[in-house]
Specification:
By secondary structure, the protein is an all-alpha fold. It has one domain. The chain contains seven helices and no strands. Helix 2 packs antiparallel against helix 3. The N and C termini lie far apart (64 Å).
């Protein structure tokens, strides 16, 4: 009796494993392989823009919530790097910087040039990616110290961070005419316009508020979120366009 149960159990496991194998094989053959055939260099540009914001968001929130005494509402984003696990956020900025540079190449190659300001917007985005690398590499100074005691590293961090998020609304403003004229991007025009308005408002708010304000950390995170969400949305659009591009090329051939 026991032997029969073992044989039955063995057959059941074997049947289950065969079923799983067939399911995986069907998925690879019918779904994954056709999808990979549609991927191209533009897909890689898009994936860079999709992954970068996720990495920064996860690293910032995980380090912020796990640091005793640190408040994501009150404390600045930069001050998180001064905590024991601030290196997690630093990695997030470095990864975002590298991936934004790749994504910027995708913007250059995928949006039709509408006006001469387009290239200025692309140049600012290239600076944005490089600035993320600098923000990650150079730590801020402790809040509240006098200007005379600020370090060289802290000065670089402060200047680059201020310049970067001040220039972001200008970058998308330069891209807006081209986005409006491109059939593949024009439906993002209104969203880009709203992003510009929010970005400009938050930049002014950050400049007015002292760093010691209770909501400084929250407003600063909203400023960063506004920028990286725009990157995320446009990267998803680029991803869809890249798949359609390959499909269109195959149908024409």
């Amino acid at each position: 009796m026991s032997k029969k149960k073992n044989i039955r159990a063995f057959k059941t496991r074997k049947s289950f494993l065969v079923s799983v194998k067939d399911t995986i094989g069907s998925f690879i053959t019918l779904k994954l392989v056709p999808f990979l055939k549609l991927c191209n260099i533009h897909t890689a540009f898009a994936v860079a823009g999709i992954v970068g914001p996720f990495v920064l968001s996860i690293s910032d929130l995980s380090a912020g919530l796990a640091s005793p005494g640190y408040s994501i509402v009150h404390d600045s984003i930069s001050s998180l790097a001064l905590t024991n696990i601030g290196w997690i956020q630093t990695i997030g900025f470095l990864v975002l910087g590298l991936l934004v540079e790749v994504f910027t190449a995708g913007l250059l190659l995928n949006i039709k040039r509408g006006v001469k300001w387009f290239y200025l917007g692309i140049a600012i985005f290239a600076f944005f990616g490089f600035a993320m690398l600098l923000i990650g590499a150079f730590r801020t100074d402790v809040a509240g110290i006098s200007d005379a005691t600020r370090t060289f590293e802290g000065r670089i961090h402060g200047f680059v961070a201020s310049a970067t998020f001040f220039l972001f609304p200008i970058a998308i403003l330069c891209l807006m005419p081209s986005i409006k004229r491109d059939p593949n991007w024009k439906y993002l025009y209104f969203y880009t316009y709203i992003t510009f308005i929010i970005g400009a408002f938050l930049v002014i708010t950050i400049k007015i508020l002292p760093e010691g304000n209770y909501l400084f950390g929250l407003i600063e995170r909203l400023l960063v979120a506004n920028a990286i969400i725009w990157i995320e949305v446009t990267a998803v659009n680029m991803f869809v366009i890249s798949l359609k591009r390959k499909s269109s090329e195959e149908s024409q051939s």
